[in-house]
Amino acid sequence: MDYASIKEELVDIFEDVMDADDVELTDETTANDVEEWDSLSHVRLIIAIERQYGIKFSNAEIEGLKKFGDIITLIQTKAG
């Protein structure tokens, strides 16, 4: 899967999990930039991503996810 396709799907997943339609997501967006993106919603986001793509993230990988773009890159790596 290419980066743009993953990003488009991930925006939909993000908006669904966060229940926020008006968030402008860039590769540099962090949890500090989105009011709804707290620790609980982050866990829900990770679970939704794992289900969508049939992948599993390690704890170390999850801890390394700081920006929206990091998530896309990791999905691209894991989903091949």
UniProtKB/TrEMBL annotation:
Domain Carrier positions: 1-79
Pfam families for the chain: PP-binding
SUPFAM superfamilies (alphabetical): ACP-like
Source superkingdom: Bacteria
Name by which UniProt lists this protein: Acyl carrier protein
Native organism: Meridianimarinicoccus marinus
